[in-house]
């Protein structure tokens, strides 16, 4: 479904601004931007540290991929330490991008101060391909994902499912499935195949159970039974030997 938000804030000269909602266990499709060279700004909030989302971005021959992360220069976001800021991974390019810059600037369209915390520009692509960019939480807060460098008017370059809710002054938002939650859920399902040991199943080191149908175990049982019967016979024989020895001593 091709969508466009009619009520969106203006930011960093990005003429394709959108608001994103992260949802757990969502059946929504991954957000797709059909031309990664077009300037976009995507707003969202991480509500816990177990959240990540992905965006599929189409890139074309001789084009570059330019992505970044920003925060508004206000408390509490501008007080978040570097190691707690979100980071980006691009699996197909084997990249992990950390927020290693901190550049403040004034954005005249929204009349707000922002801090750029991450920026990456690729070399030119030799072929058309789809790049998946993943953004990962390490703390709660509101953030901005920036993409592209071309200013385009009158066309929409983003695809995704919509949710009707009021966020940041918008009446609707793009749905982004929480990919970290999905991964965790798959691991939880695998864990269900490992059943816990019940009290009745627990055995101490000295407790051994034999399978009566096991021939080796059966032999061990037979040997133990034989020993039980031999003990009194051996005891009687030892007593008799002791009596004979005593009689010889008396003589």
Query: What general form does the structure show?
Result: rod-shaped
Calculate the mean pLDDT score and round it: 79
Strand order of the largest sheet: 8-9-5-11-3-1-14-13
Main sheet overview: 8 strands, mixed
Radius of gyration: 36 Å
Strand content: 25-35%
Question: How far apart, in Å, are the first and last alpha carbons?
Answer: 117 Å
Structural class: alpha+beta
The arrangement of helices and strands along the chain is EEEEEEEEEEEEEEHH
Instruction: List unreliable stretches of 5+ residues.
Output: 1-14, 187-212
Helix share bin: 10-25%
Secondary structure: number of strands: 14
Instruction: Enumerate how many helices there are, as a single number.
Output: 2
Total domains: 2
Q: Would you mind describing this structure in some detail?
A:
The chain has 251 residues and is α+β, with helices and mostly antiparallel strands. It has 2 domains: 168 residues, no CATH class; 49 residues. 20% of the residues lie in helices and 34% in strands. The radius of gyration is 36 Å and the shape is rod-shaped. It starts with 16 loop residues before the first strand and ends with a helix.
The gist of it:
This protein has 2 domains: 17-184, no CATH class; 203-251.
